[in-house]
Specification:
The protein is mainly α and about 55 residues long. It contains 1 helix and no strands. The longest helix has about 50 residues.
Length: about 55
């Protein structure tokens, strides 16, 4: 393989690794965002129920 082919193969490999990193990070951040949203929703529901029961 000539030098340009080697550089091209390395560039494809680097792009593939970056794509995998972005996908894994996106999945992790999405999961974290869902957990935070569920926690906030739980707190709001508890506060609402508590407020309604005090009336």
């Amino acid at each position: 393989m000539d030098e340009k082919g080697q550089i091209s193969a390395e560039m494809i490999l680097i792009m593939g690794v970056l794509l995998v990193i972005v996908i894994v990070a996106g999945a992790f951040i999405t999961n974290m965002a869902h957990q935070i949203a569920d926690s906030v929703n739980s707190v709001l529901n508890t506060a609402r129920s508590s407020t309604i029961n005090r009336m």
